[in-house]
Amino acid sequence: MSTAIDFTNIGPTVGEQFPDVSLPDQHGDMIDLHRTRAGRRAVVLFHRSAGW
Amino acid sequence: MELQRTLPDFARNGIAVFAISYDPVAVLTKFAETHGIHYPLLADEGSQVIRRLGLLNEHVYEHHAVYGIPKRDMFWGVPYPGAFLLDEEGRVLQKRFQQSYRERETGTAILEHGFGGNSSLPKVAAQAQDEEEVTVRATLESDTYRWFQRLWLTVELTLAPELHVYGQPIPEGYIPLSVDVAPIDGLEVGPANFPAPHPYHIEGLEAEFMVYQRDVAVSVPLTFTKEGEDQTLHVTVGYQACSNTGCFAPQTRALQLPVKAADLVERSRRKQ
Questions:
Q1: CA atoms within 13 A on the CB side of B116
Q2: What are B17-35's pLDDT values in tens digits?
Q3: What structural domains does chain B harbor?
Q4: Tens of pLDDT along B144-198?
Q5: Minimal Cα–Cα distance from A10 to chain B, Å?
Q6: Do residue B95 and residue A39 have CB atoms under 8 angstroms apart?
Q7: Fewest 10 Å CB contacts: which of B2, B83, B238, B245?
Q8: Using the beta-carbon criterion (under 8 Å), do B17 and A45 form an inter-chain contact?
Q9: Could B27 and A49 be called an inter-chain contact, meaning their C-beta atoms sit closer than 8 Å?
Q10: Dist CA B42 CA B19 (whole Å)
Q11: ipTM
Q12: Distances (CA, A) of B5 to B1, B39, B96, B232
């Protein structure tokens, strides 16, 4: 197995503002992440395909 | 899907849930319908956002080489698997990422370990108590395992006020607190996370000991890499409890935690 990946500096770092993200959801509606969050805390999951 | 089942708990804790993958909308529509998913599954077709955020998984082929999976273009464009936890202002509170795209955490782990919330999903627990007033409890964060989902096993000891158990490093002849999970085919047991012990002096002895007192929690990451049968985890906790005046005999506590395989319907649907 390769050496463990250090995620500290991969992607937005702790304490940083999470960037604006607008993407279509499963219904085809555009979702603005921060607007939809509406002042709530949030978890943003990145995952491999739902198709395989 | 496990996260969907945790969704009411996220809502109760005031936490919004989003998932991002490189799938086109149509794939996500079908996936959401099949699994009854109500939180937003966002379609980053072409992996633009994944790239912009610096999350393109450049190690995906290395993992495939390890597992003997042939190189195929469909694997390119996947993100590193993991989660960003955001505060009310939208700042990153915590990053919880996995080494392999195959692995994922439970919603319960994100909610409880990440946000300090409480999940209402069933856990399994077992407990043992001995006459020296040491209580040992083992809890698995879910009563159900899923392929390549990381489950945290937590072993908690509660010691009577005058007692301590030993941590590492430890002088020869003493027995440190240990947690072992018996091997099961297809079960990967990660390294146990022990809390930092604190130094302790015993009157009349020169050596300094590293010890735990009162409440100690040790967590062990478990990953089932094969789908199959319901299983029982056999957890062995070893320790020697001592006070200022002497030690009890070393103990090993065996705890059993039954864990169910995710139901066949869910699995067969996922393979389609």
A1: 4
A2: 999 999 999 999 999 998 8
A3: 2-118 (3.40.30.10), 124-261 (2.60.40.1250)
A4: 898 888 899 999 999 988 899 999 888 788 899 999 999 999 899 999 999 999 9
A5: 6
A6: no
A7: B245
A8: yes
A9: yes
A10: 6
A11: 0.94
A12: 7, 11, 20, 23
B87 and A36 in contact by Cβ < 8 A? Answer: no
Chain A residues touching residue B14 (CB < 8 angstroms) = 40-41
CA B196 to centroid of chain Cα atoms: 19
Supply the DSSP string of A6-38, one letter for each residue: --TTSSSPTTSBPPP-EEE-TTS-EEEHHHHHT
Q: Does B148 touch chain A (CB under 8 A)?
A: no
**Alpha-carbon span B266 to B203, nearest angstrom:** 60
CA-closest candidate to residue A47, choices B43, B26, B261, B7: B43
Task: Determine the residue of chain A that is closest to B60 in CA distance.
Answer: A48
Set of chain A residues whose Cβ sits within 8 Å of the Cβ of B88: 39-41
B56 lies within 8 A of chain A by CB: no
Reduced DSSP (H G I as helix, E B as strand, rest coil) percent helix, strand, coil of chain B, to 5: 20, 40, 40
**Torsion sign (Cα): B36, B41, B46, B50:** negative
